[in-house]
Prior knowledge:
Helices cover about 40% and strands about 15% of the residues. By secondary structure, it is an alpha/beta fold.
Amino acid sequence: MNIPFAESYKIKMVEPIRRSNCNEREQWIKEAKYNLFNLQSNQVFVDLLTDSGTGAMSDRQWSEMMLGDESYAGASSYYKLKSAITEITGFPYFLPTHQGRAAENVLFSALIKEGDLIPGNSHFDTTKGHIEFRKAKAIDCTIDEAFDTTLDHPFKGNVDIRKLEKMLSSNPIERIPMIIITATCNSSGGQPVSMQNFREVSKLAKKFGVKVIIDSARFAENAYFIKIREKEYANHSIREIVKEMFSYADGMTMSSKKDAIVNMGGFIGLRDQELFQKASVFNIMFEGFITYGGMSGRDMNALAQGLYEGTEFDYLETRINQVAFLGEMLKAAGVPVQYPFGGHAIFIDAKRFLPQVPKEQFIAQTLAVELYIEGGIRGVEIGTILADRDPETRENRFPDLELVRLAIPRRTYTNNHLHYVAAHIINVWERRNDIKTGYSIHYEAPIMRHFTVELEKI
Ligand SMILES: *Cc1c(COP(=O)(O)O)cnc(C)c1O
């Protein structure tokens, strides 16, 4: 008999969650203006909105919380975190921040000016937000294969080296302060970047004298995929792979709420002292003194411990196999899901699920609302609402992909929860032809509208 996969941990504490019925949910989502961010968490049964800050900390992380040093300056927690970051990433300089977007705010304040161009592989929404807020532009150089959800490619997060080279050579180089590599690439579906790609981007960046910054939220999951899919790395440890990945970069921004398995936190890692000093000024202004940067001592302790746990092979194998467990159930039933499966989430291809809904009516959002009403499952739209309007023309940007992301929190749900999720999605798949119309926008914010958008049913 085949041996099924078993988790590399057991459960010590539980939190009750509540079921509801379809009638209740129809009422709640209407009151939430058909925006899943507006729901109360107790109106959700299985919450796959995000894997950000929603993971379960370990007994060791909770123990570290009790050892936190809350000194304003020079806390032992700061030094514990600094030593973990340097050991794992190799960056000699670091600044703590309260979360990932704060790291972007601080670093971009030091690096980006109006009119700049920032190439990368499908920038994350807050990253793009912080670029566009500074009247600079994010240029997407992801490989084309990333946008075909049916294509089997091991590293759909890769930067297209030819697109990047063309971009670098056809623009004034002083307007390109950095290249941002997002690993794994969230916007293209939690897809990894290969070590070869890191190496090639770094080589090109050096040739043009441009910095490489890694948007690192899921760096450890990326390293796992390198180990599994890139032959030369099969016998390397996750930590060795992580070190090499970062060796190709000048700096990193980190949302610790992902692969460092804490509920809140972030940081910047840097190689260059001068840039560190420049960024420190903004850190003090926006986040706090450089030895805490918006984090409590106890949170820095839990984060240091989380960095070690998050880069263990057994943990990552459990994590990525659980995500694939959900993916395989959906795929077997014919539900169109992105393939290969991402590291942190399963992405449903909403254009292929609901081809009859016009793109102007927000296809992925329509499906996400339907899954909520069906089973109390909260996913998130990665489609036209998220893509926002073009900052110049103010027209809706219609992305190539309309996805519903089901993000799996770390060490939080059991496979039975995911079985429940799959069964409900398959029920919606079987009645998909009855869903004919979507939504129109009643209210939207001028930037990052997806968080607060209000919709009306058509
Ligand atoms: C989550 C995330 C961010 C932003 O981090 P927050 O902690 O949510 O502010 C930036 N980049 C990527 C790739 C992320 O996944």
